[in-house]
Each structure stands twice: as structure tokens, then as C-alpha cells.
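Q: I'm writing up a methods section and want to include an example of the input and output format. Could you take the sequence below and give the corresponding predicted C-alpha cells, formatted cleanly so I can copy it straight into the document?
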Amino acid sequence: MSAPIKISDVTVGDYTFHINESGPADGKPIIWLHGSGPGATASSNWEWLLGEFGDTYHNIAPDIIGFGDSTHPNPPPEGMAAFAELRVATLLSLFDELGFDKVTLVGNSMGGMISLEIVRQVPERVEKLILMGSAGGQGGAPKPGLFKMISFYENPTAESMAEILRYFLHDPDSFDGNLQQIAETRLKRAMRPEVERSHRATFNFAAGGPIGLTTEDLEQITQPTLLVHGDDDKIVPIESSQFMADHIPNSRFEIFKDTGHWLQIEQGPRFAKIVRAFLEEDAK
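A: Here is the clean output for your methods example:
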């Protein structure tokens, strides 16, 4: 039976996180960090998995600062790296506020890059690391879906949103014709002025690109690390995960066949099974 999800707002300093929470308060904490894109939220990435893992673990899935119903700074940091630094700092403050000394991080896409930066800055606070279709690696040609997502506000329509969502999936037809409805719902969030402002600031490449994680940074990660990637990911090249798997010492890499960037949605039960087995290894 799926565990209930509690919705609340948690304020840390000048910022407020909108969080989705499930599971026992004394369970091991898992922080689920969503990816980017217009209208992206923690719930849109993780809702089913929060219910699935709420039997045992204390799950927290926040709208990262600059997304959803969390704070949208005004003015925002300009450039992906500058905004990511604020996102990392505020997440660490959230961990403090919630009383989490040590957490497991699950990062999807941009959330993976943020997870890696948290590990780089405060490795003592991370128990295990799960990266799904994660940014932060090297290699592979830029994917067309990424450009479409970044440039969404040049033509912000329901049809453009549906096209982005099709890029996220290996088999859009598996949504039984509901993709347009999902796109229209997500469009309403994306068209909020503060959401557009945060998106444009994040992807202001004139102000700087993403956080640069060096080979040496990856080689210093000692946490058990699970990397998963869809073989038909049209947003982040699979070479990104392969590069990280090659350089993170205590890592393993699972490729999901016939799967796109939304691996956790297209392959939810299989993803959950692999993650649960990984979490239970060496559990005391």
C-alpha cells in the first residue's frame, strides 16, 4: 500500500522550501532532488516513488529553490553555476532545519549535478548517492531535447510543452493520449512570471555554464554510488553517466533499455527495486 504524502513549507533564513514528505520520522532520510525544465517540481518527478519508499524511509522531496512553490529569488543568481551554489547552500540549511546529520541523495538530471556538488562540499553528510540521468559528467554530443527545454520560453505553448515531454520519454504513446493534458497542467506552472524568471536565469549561459566537476572531484567520492541511465535519453547523453561511473571508485552503472530521460516514470517499479536493493546493502 502506498504511503501517504504530507505537503508542507519549511523556511530556512530568507528562503522557503515547498516539500513533499513520506515515511516514518525515525526512518533513514532520503532526499529526492528533481530535474530542471519549465514547470518542473518535486511532485512531478517523484510522487509515486515517495509513496513506494514511505514504508521504511523518511523521504523528503523539495521543490528546489527557483522551482515550483519554493522561493524564487528576485533578482536571481545569473548562470547555472551561481544558481546551483545557492541551491546547494539552501538545501544544506534545509538538512539542518530538519535535523538530518547524514542523508542519502537521489538526484535526477540537474538534481544529480546538485547532489554531486553537495558530496564535494560536505562528504561527511552523505551516506549513499543515487544518480539518475544525471548531469555532471563529460562526453557525448548535446541532445536535441535539452535545447528544446532550454528555449521553451521562445514559444511557450501547450504544444511546445508536449513536445518537450515527448523528448523526455522513450515511448510517449504509453501515456495513452494523456500527454497533452499533462502538458497543459505543467504549462500553467511554467507561465508563472517567477518560474520563467528563474528558468531564464538558470540557463543564462552568458553568465556562466554548469558547475565544473573534475575527474579528481569524482575520484574523491567514497560513498557507495548507483548510476542509472536510459539508453534512449534525449536530454542528457548516456556518456555523462558512463564517465562518472568510470571515475567514481565505489560505483555501479545500470543501463535501462528502451527508456528515456523520465526513467523513474517509464520504469518506476524496476527503478524502485534496484534502488531498494542498493539502499539495503550493508544496512545495519
